[in-house]
Structure formats: C-alpha cells, structure tokens
Specification:
single chain, alpha+beta, Aldehyde Oxidoreductase, domain 3, 3 helices, 9 strands
Length: 155
C-alpha cells in the first residue's frame, strides 16, 4: 500500500504493475483527468496545491480504511500537484484484489472519500483568462481578496 503527492506526470501503467499480485484475480485503475469544462465554463488547466503533511496523512487514513473494509492490501493512490493542462491526469488509484467486486468497491470508496476529505485545493484557469478556486464538489468558491487593492488602511 502506498500513497503519494507528486509533481511529475502520473504513470498509470506503473501503478497497475505496482499492485499486481498472482493472488489477485482483478486489478482496477481509476484515472481522473483535467476536463474541458466545469459548470458550463471552458477550462484550459488547473493548479493543484496542498499542505502536504495534512493531505498525505488523510490519504493514508483513507487507504488504510479501504484495506480494512474491502480486504485489499495492494492499493496505490497518487495525486499530482502543480499546473496541469487539459487531459493530464491529476489522480490515479490502482487496486488489486482476489475478487473484482472488492477491487472495484475499494477503488470507488477511495475516490469518494478522497474528494470529500483530502485538503487539496484547485484553481481553474478559464478560456476567458479568469481563474477561480473550486471546491471538491466542483463549484466555484468565493473570490479571494485582490491583494493589489490594499486594505482599509490604504496599504
């Protein structure tokens, strides 16, 4: 079992090889990629950032929960940080298990819990030049203050 935040392109084939085991009758792979639109807005890319110690600790908890709940010890989760363009993989989850149902259930559990719990922030870049932070449910979050305007003291 392994989790990682990385700053390089993900290699799904390597992750599948990492979880391969002769005792496993099923291997599953989920790859999440940067898509062209979100909530009707054309996207050109996404910046992913995280406070690594907190994010990695939560990723580890989720992996351990999946292992305990579905009986799978061959599980890898990688999430990429940095600026990603359309079509680039942001997350990959590979799981192998003796049975396909458990492998698929574990994988779905991991991605759903990941989206709900892991503190990774994303800022979408739009075709019109605008950028916005987006919550894990896909909606834009309130705009951050414009640092160029200054505060009430005129700074």
């Amino acid at each position: 079992m392994r989790i990682a935040l990385v700053d390089h392109p993900l290699d799904p084939t390597a992750l599948l090889a990492e979880v391969a085991d002769v005792g496993s009758g099923a291997s599953t792979l989920f790859v999440g990629t940067v898509r062209r639109t979100n909530q009707g807005r054309a996207v050109t890319g996404i910046d992913y950032s995280a406070y690594a110690p907190m994010a990695e600790a939560e990723m580890q908890r989720i992996a351990e929960e999946a292992a305990a709940k579905f009986g799978c010890t061959h599980l890898v989760i990688e999430h990429r940080l940095g600026t990603l363009l359309l079509g680039e993989a942001s997350i990959a989850i590979a799981v192998s298990h003796e049975r396909r149902g458990a492998a698929m259930d574990a994988q779905r559990y991991v991605i759903e819990e990941f989206k709900a719990r892991v503190p990774i922030w994303k800022r979408e870049h739009y075709v019109d030049g605008d950028r916005a932070w987006v919550d894990n449910a896909g909606g834009a979050v309130p705009a951050e203050p414009d640092a160029s305007v200054g505060d009430s003291t005129g700074r």
